[in-house]
Design goal:
41% of the residues lie in helices and 15% in strands. The protein is α+β, with helices and mostly antiparallel strands and 91 residues long. Strands 1-4 form a two-stranded antiparallel sheet.
């Protein structure tokens, strides 16, 4: 959630995005058996509609980090840092 607050989202909007993640408890069903309930404090919920936004924010931070370290993938004498740049190789 740190990446979201870096974008300028704050106050009630930030609380609305965070709220599904407070006090989240799960159990796992395997065949007809269920585990004990346990608390999940990290990760993303499956099917959460804001997942694409969270993923893009994570990738944005990752690309900035890679650029700062001057690392990436070299192909045909050119260094590619972002996924977008890599996709341009095939189109």
């Amino acid at each position: 959630m740190v990446s979201i607050s870096k974008t300028g989202i704050s106050g009630q909007m930030l609380n609305a995005v965070r709220s599904p993640y407070y006090s989240v408890n799960y159990c796992v069903r395997f065949n007809s058996f269920y585990t004990e309930w346990f608390c999940v404090s990290g990760g993303l919920m499956q099917g959460y509609t804001l997942f694409p936004l969270f993923f893009n924010l994570y990738l944005d931070d990752l690309v900035k980090y890679m650029k700062a370290l001057d690392v990436g993938i070299t192909y045909a004498m050119r260094k590619y840092v972002s996924c977008y740049m890599l996709m341009t190789l095939y189109y």
